[in-house]
TrEMBL record:
GO cellular component: plasma membrane
Matches recorded under Pfam families: PLDc_2, PLDc_N
Record's protein name: YwnE cardiolipin synthase 2
Family annotation (PANTHER family): CARDIOLIPIN SYNTHASE, PHOSPHOLIPASE D
CDD domains to which the protein is assigned, alphabetical: PLDc_CLS_unchar1_2
UniProt-listed SMART domains: PLDc (SM00155)
EC number(s) per entry: 2.7.8.-
UniProt-annotated location(s): Cell membrane
Species: Desulfotignum phosphitoxidans DSM 13687
Transmembrane stretches, start-end: 7-27, 39-60
Keyword set, alphabetical order: Cell membrane, Membrane, Transferase, Transmembrane, Transmembrane helix
InterPro entries: CLS_N, PLD-like_dom, PLipase_D/transphosphatidylase
Membrane topology: Multi-pass membrane protein
Gene3D superfamilies per UniProt: Endonuclease Chain A
Length: 462
């Protein structure tokens, strides 16, 4: 009899606790004013898998950090061109607290992994004072080991080396850090962003640092979509190498990348790395605007700018992205642009490196194709590049994918370029991609369509 009473009390207690957790998660959703699609997805998950979804909800929590958890990132208004010369997109970003565009930058980009690798190694070898690197993925494969060896040599020569790595993006390296031992011994510093084993119950596992920033002597920057492993770059061709972008930058815009890295490093390493008080000299004729996004930005400035670019485009909107999971507003904006006669093209790999991502994006892509948007599938491997071209007025390159995770959750950074010296080469590169693409999607079978539609419901959680 006593056992029956014990089990009865245990069951009732479990039911009460479960109910309180469910009600707590629902109350938190209302308090946070989550978007309806996100709320619906979470509600379905909680109803179907309550014992899994409720703990996950409290682990993932908010998409914006409170000030005490990470200082809001504000780029200094240094070197900005006057408001009278700013583009409408530039003004949208300025009114969201983003520093305005700067003139006098030198900018070019690589889509070849061998050239990108050689440029990275050249910049490391020529650095005299500081090497600051932030990356999402660093694998200890031959490419990663070569980069770490080069960084170790510079650290042993007295160069200040700081390496910031995302914990989840580089999870195997986080759990087995032996490849970092020599760098640390030589004086280099390594920090993992929001590590799992540190403050596990106070961590934001869902908010990852997806930024790729390589800064050398506070004078040059490499950035884009490339991480450090042989899938992205290497000293020789590799059959399974992905199509991606790494761009080179000199000039005043370097200062803003330095600000972003400094804030991320200080938050992670609990240091007070200072920001130089000088603005790099003008070395070119390109106008660029550095745009960070993520939990440390109070507004959704990048999202607003992209939405405005789509609505204001008159001739073309060409998008290159590996993952395409837009929200309803961005989807509708693309459809409306197409109906206005704008040449809207989505260039994406026929198959990405994630099956779930493919299932999630397919229903959105089919909807766009049905409304007249040209959905172009690249059959020659993975495209990891992220770029958007709007008319002949601008191009966006950086780390952000055109999905809800990049636009609303991850820490990202992109550059808006407003100069034809950048726009025209980007358009030529996209034209080459388009020529190699298949202009139609394969029809979906019954089970494939069910899977795609189901995954689109849960897309806000991905």
């Amino acid at each position: 009899m006593s056992e029956n009473v014990f089990y009865f009390i245990l069951v009732q207690t479990s039911a009460i606790v479960s109910g309180m957790l469910v009600l707590g998660s629902l109350g938190h959703m209302v308090y946070q004013r989550r978007e309806p699609p996100s709320m619906i997805a979470w509600l379905l998950a909680i109803i179907l898998l309550p014992y899994l979804a409720v703990p996950l909800y409290f682990i993932l929590r908010s998409r914006k950090l409170k000030r005490r958890e990470k200082t809001a990132l504000k780029l200094a208004k240094k070197g900005e061109i006057p408001d009278s010369k700013a583009t409408p997109i530039d003004m949208v970003l300025r009114n969201n607290g983003i520093a305005g565009a700067t003139f006098g930058n030198r900018f070019f980009f690589y889509t070849d992994g061998v050239k990108a690798y050689n440029m990275l190694m050249e910049q490391i070898a020529s650095a005299r004072h500081t090497i600051l690197i932030s990356t999402y993925v660093l694998r200890p494969d031959p490419v990663g080991k070569n980069v770490l060896s080069a960084l170790t040599r510079k650290a042993s020569q007295g160069v200040q080396v700081k390496l910031l790595i995302d914990c989840i993006g580089s999870l195997p390296l986080y759990f087995r850090q032996k490849p970092l031992k020599s760098l640390r011994k030589a004086g280099g510093q390594v920090a993992f962003y929001m590590p799992l084993m540190t403050r596990p119950f106070q961590n934001y596992i869902n908010l990852r640092n997806h930024r790729k920033i390589f800064i050398f002597d506070d004078c040059t920057v490499l950035s884009g979509g490339m991480n450090i492993s042989r899938e992205y770059m290497g000293p020789s061709p590799y059959d399974q190498r992905w199509t991606d972008i790494l761009f080179y930058l000199e000039g005043p815009a370097v200062f803003h990348y330095r600000e972003i890295f400094t804030e991320d490093w200080n938050h992670t390493a609990r240091e007070e790395l200072a920001i130089p008080d000088f603005l790099p000299e003008a070395t070119g004729d390109a106008t660029l605007q550095v745009v960070p996004s993520g939990p440390d930005i109070p507004s959704d400035a990048l999202y607003e700018a992209l939405l405005f670019a789509v609505f204001s485009a008159r001739e073309r909107i060409w998008i290159v992205t590996p993952y395409f999971v837009p929200d309803k507003s961005l989807m509708q904006a693309l459809v409306i642009a197409c109906h206005r006669g704008v040449d809207v093209r989505l260039i994406t790999p026929a198959s990405s490196n994630h099956l779930i991502a493919d299932l999630s994006r397919s229903s959105f892509m089919r909807d766009l194709a049905g409304k007249g948007v040209k959905v172009l599938l690249y059959p020659h491997g993975m495209i990891h590049a992220k770029a958007m071209l709007f008319d002949d007025r601008g191009v966006v390159m950086g780390s952000a994918n055109f999905d809800q995770r990049s636009l609303f959750l991850n820490y990202e950074v992109v550059s808006f370029a407003y100069s034809r010296s950048i726009i025209d080469p980007c358009a030529a590169w996209m034209t080459q991609l388009i020529a190699d693409c298949t202009p139609r999607m394969q029809p979906a079978g019954r089970w494939r369509r069910i899977s795609e539609n189901l995954m689109s419901v849960f897309a806000p959680l991905l």
